[in-house]
Design a protein that fits this description.
- By secondary structure, the protein is an alpha/beta fold.
- α4 packs antiparallel against α5, α7 crosses α8 and α7 runs antiparallel to α9.
- It is elongated and about 110 Å long.
- It has three domains: about 220 residues, no CATH class; about 60 residues, no CATH class; about 100 residues, Helix Hairpins.
- Helix content is about 35%, strand content about 30%.
- Strands 1, 2, 3, 4, 5, 6, 7, 8, 9, 10, 11 and 12 form a twelve-stranded parallel beta sheet that branches.
- The protein contains nine helices and 15 strands.
Amino acid sequence: MITLRTLLQEANIDSKDSLRRYADEKYQAVSPVPLKVIRSLDLELDDESRIYNDRIEYKNTIFDIPNLCIKNTRYMSFVNCIFMGNVRIGQTMSSEIESIYFDYCIFSGTLNIAAIDKVGSVSLNSVNACNVRLHKIGSPCMKLSNCQIGNLLVTDCDVAEFLTFCNEFFYLNIGNNNFEHVSFNHTQLNIKNQPVLSDKRLKKRICDSFNKFSFTPYPDLEEMAATETKALRSSTFCFLATHSDIGLDREAMGHLKYLHTLVCQPNRFLYWTLRLSGGLAKPFRIALLSCVTLVIFALVFYLPCFQFSAPSTDGASVIRSLMLSEAFYYSGITFTTIGYGDISPIGWARPLAISEGLFGLVLMSSFLVSLVRKYIE
């Protein structure tokens, strides 16, 4: 199937100016064109630019209409379409709307779907729009996939399933909705760029910099499968923790917490760190790691290249290397941050001692946390 991405390339449309030139040149063109141009005079609109057709289906079309209002249409489908103005979709009658479907569409203005009590489904697939407003919609299913939306507002909707997949939302406001089931991956929204309160200047900046002619690429299927597998495993572990009698088996419960911690960690470095430390749910593993750390630092302190201020046989402090027993003793008091002061590092031994002290603080804190998670929680 030919997509709008291909049609834009054939028509040499890659900006707002080139879109305007194409619409002016190709309007009422006799020869075949990649995208047909329609204006207000070509549609049966009333004085307020409203259309009341029972069924609307358009493909490969540019709507060069400043404000288009669609009312009481039972079925509407737009595929590979560009709207150069604002689009409002609403309902003034009690009859149910079968479907609202947009696939590969670009909106230069605002897409406003509001005040619809009953609609079979609302589907936005590969939609690029600066502003999308979904308000007071009652539907069994509302789906957004592969969309790029500058400002998305979803309010006062009564929807059984609210599904979002592989979108890119720059600014998001959702509130006062009744959703029975929601699928929303947080990576669709850059949380760090979200302001605390509504910012009109930010919205304007988003619209000014928004590239409506660049569509979101479809995600890698293997990556999607891996994400779904992680989500399924996480759901399984949560089910076992809350709906089974695994809490009666302390060892099994501790291992379940360990597995759940690993499956929820996307960062590979932290994943292997948690796996090595038992996911802060296995005290024995952290205790073993602490002992290994203490021994390694002791053997390093034992090397002749590291000098310390240590007591001699007559009790006076001299600068020398440590004996093996002294190295283990010094490693132990450094790891536990006790530091009696009878042995002091000199030169390059100082940053090494600081490093062991930091390791000790982290591992001892992790050990206490793992004890709490396994035996108290």
